[in-house]
Amino acid sequence: MARRRQRLVDRRKIVGLSQEQLADAVGVERTTVGRWETVESSPQPIQRPRLAKALGVSVEELQGLLLDVVDIPSQDRSELAVRTGVPQPTEKSVRRPGSRREAGEPSQPCRRLSDVSRISWLSDASNPTVPTAPEWPVWFGVRTAHLVGTVDNWPGPDAQSDGLQSLLDREFLMFDAIAESQDPVHAISRRQALIAVAALPLMLPTSGTALSPGATTELFLSRCAASLTACWHLLRGSDLYTIENVLSAYLLELEAATKRRTAHRDMAARLASQAHRICGILALHRNQLRMREHHCRQALHYASATSDVSTRVSALISLASTYFYDADPTRAASVYEQALAFESDLPSLQRSRIHAELSVVFGQLGRESDALRSAELAEQLYPKLPEQDPSYLYAEFTQASLTLELGLSYLALADRFPNRNYQRSAAEVFSRTEPAVDSSMPDRIRFEIINHQAQAAVLLNDLDAFETYFSRAIDGVTLLGSKQRQKEMQAAWRHANKAWPAERRLQALAEQLRPAIGQ
């Protein structure tokens, strides 16, 4: 058996670096990186701070990556040598202690469960021999069990939930990184794993447990932190109402934990704020703006009880966007500017989001120079590696979200200043999402962009483009079941009908839309 530092390999891929790029960042040869990954050697102490910085982890976290060594099957050695540039020893050249099968030991086809996670295909996205359909559920089952153990043994009460959420976020990102192609079995297994983690707060010990009240609260909050992390990842797909069913089952108990005079109150308040923000997103997709406003105000209430500025600003941004969707740009701008007052204490990703969304409401208010300046600042502030930003999980601001807001800003300016060609700028910005399908792009954002691409096509008097985008948008309504996306589609169709009142193709599109919206 050869060996590999699998988590080190996974981390390099998550931050988007090749072995050569990582070697350049650290100041070593590419083959040196290959030897680190295949456990042929280890980074020297003087190299570790540079390696940690390049991978976006602390030196302590790097130590954990280096210690996580897995075995890989012998048949993968020649391929591994090609990829890493490091010759791999054969069974004949290296005699390992205990390599002989002892009496009573299971033969090779009967692997122990503890060995399943050591198979090379389980974690290596660059391996062309990706797992077959039946293998993905095994990997996800084992990985989920490992994560549950991590959650339930998370140290406390002094440990904060953000450390646990950060760790789980990286693990869930690895779920996506290990699949190179669109494998439906991988997608289903991933979804089931995320739902299992999301449901952890519902599986607490009942009467008869030996846990003290404090330990029970600690376990509950750790599981809530894990659940909310899984919910943020589920929000990137079409599981909107699955999330609602899970959250509604433990939200009241989480709120109750914020009222207890214990060492856990700050942690409980942060998590309650996140939970209400997620509920607000779900309310938006039911087109229940008053319910969304309620959840956003609750999120702000709990955030104000914590010491974390980033949590408070996230709640303010959610509340401000509620007023944007309610067609009240004046009120939205006022709340965004409240969030902007904390700018000096915020990570760059949140600063970028505030400026991006402010540019939209400034455009709606006809404040042209302010809109353009805010849009420019948003692009400048957006980090090159957003997943390394401390607010990445709950900031809810991917590269696709930035594209959406910049495009909306130009659409708003096009409405106010129709002769300045802002509609062309909007179409060009939205088109940034088209060259490739980004798996990190949430479906609800993808289809919101498509809806607004249809609107931009109307402004550009391009019926063919409108027909293309509108047909795609119908797929989105069917997939998500979102009344908000449906509302946007209907608005785009009304604009198109006004622009081309006698066009038969529009009537055909309307007939396609009716089944999707249940008419």
Characterization of this structure:
By secondary structure, the protein is mostly helical. The protein has four domains: 1-89 and 118-124, lambda repressor-like DNA-binding domains (434 Repressor (Amino-terminal Domain), Orthogonal Bundle), CATH 1.10.260; 133-307; 329-435, no CATH class; 442-519, no CATH class. Helices cover 65% and strands 1% of the residues. The protein contains 25 helices and two strands. It has helices spanning 6-14, 19-26, 30-37, 48-55, 59-67, 77-84, 113-116, 135-152, 161-177, 184-198, 213-234, 240-257, 265-285, 289-303, 309-325, 329-340, 348-364, 368-381, 392-395, 399-416, 422-430, 443-459, 463-480, 483-499, 504-516, and strands spanning 2-4, 70-72. It has a two-stranded antiparallel ribbon. Helix 11 (213-234) packs parallel to helix 13 (265-285), helix 13 (265-285) runs antiparallel to helix 14 and helix 15 (309-325) packs antiparallel against helix 16. The longest helix has 22 residues, at 213-234. It is globular. It starts with a strand and ends with a helix. The model is unreliable at 74-130 (pLDDT under 50).
